[in-house]
Design goal:
Length: about 60
C-alpha cells in the first residue's frame, strides 16, 4: 500500500464512522474528511468500500434495530 492509498483508506474509515455514528449530512461528512464536493466523495467512497455512503448508513441503522 502506498501513501496515497493509505490516506484514502484512512479518510474512508473516518467517513464510515461519521456516517454510522452521527446524523451529519453526507456533504458535511465529505467536507470533514477533506473532499470539496459530495459527488467526488461519493465516487471515492464507492470505489473504496463497494457501497455508497447512503447505503452504508441505511444498513447500519437496520442492524441497530
Amino acid at each position: 500500500m502506498n501513501a496515497g492509498e493509505f490516506v484514502t483508506r484512512l479518510r474512508m474509515l473516518l467517513a464510515a464512522d461519521l456516517l454510522t455514528g452521527t446524523d451529519r449530512p453526507v456533504g458535511a461528512v465529505a467536507a470533514a474528511v477533506g473532499y470539496g464536493s459530495e459527488s467526488a466523495f461519493g465516487r471515492a467512497f464507492r470505489v473504496a468500500t463497494g457501497t455508497t455512503p447512503a447505503r452504508l448508513r441505511r444498513s447500519a441503522r437496520e442492524r441497530e434495530r
